Amino acid sequence: MPDLAVVTGAAGGIGSAVAARLRGDGFSVVGVDRAEADLTDEAAVAAVFGALGPVAALVHCAGVTAGAPAHAASLEDWRAVLDSNLTSAFLCARAVLPGMLREGRGVIVTIGSVHGHAFQPGYPAYAAAKAGLAAFTRQLAVEYGRRGVRAVTISPGWVRTPDTLTRATDPDDLARLAETQRTGEPADVAAAVAFAVSPAAALLTGTEIVLDGGASAVQPAALLRPGPRARLGLPPLTEARPEES
């Protein structure tokens, strides 16, 4: 019998690529998306996972990207973003952990974001949720590592999905912020997930893999310049530095 992998957010650009890659690697894959269950609802999560056998790999891709400055965000908005990105991860992890502990093995992969540690204006709830997700995943690694369960966060930068393409002024300009001079593709994230859940990654746990082409290493300085700020739809700084030639 092939190992069972559950991929949440499986209808999204990253989630669908992850599900396809894991199927190709020999997993039996169950994809869960909003059409199947509200992953912020405790009873709904229990019902979905209760119908499954032991889960060898949980890949949590579910979440939303929503932005509003802290002074303008409602408490409802704040809770919705944290619930979608962070509470859902807790509920899904809690659902699969008993089976993993009985089997003495399992991998939990959460899909974070560089926005959990490289910030931009207008996304306080999203940044808090993704930072919390990475911390939660490390906690799982510490808590269950000696019982055979690994936990890893994979944090992409800009990835070409239908969602990110609607939010970028010019997606090609985003590539210029990366040292690799290209944005990510869903297949890039899927490849990292495939490694993380494989036996080859037996020592990989309690850490975060950043997939941003090196952008987070240079982005803070780059975003002080008016050109990149304008292309990303960010407001000008009061004292913007001149663009480099």
TrEMBL record:
Source superkingdom: Bacteria
Stretch forming the signal peptide: none
Pfam entry (one): adh_short_C2
Record InterPro entries: NAD(P)-bd_dom_sf, Sc_DH/Rdtase_CS, SDR, SDR_fam
GO biological process: monocarboxylic acid metabolic process
Entries under PROSITE patterns matching the protein: ADH_SHORT
Family: Belongs to the short-chain dehydrogenases/reductases (SDR) family.
Protein name stated in the entry: 3-hydroxyacyl-CoA dehydrogenase
Organism, as annotated: Dactylosporangium sucinum
Species classification: Bacteria, Bacillati, Actinomycetota, Actinomycetes, Micromonosporales
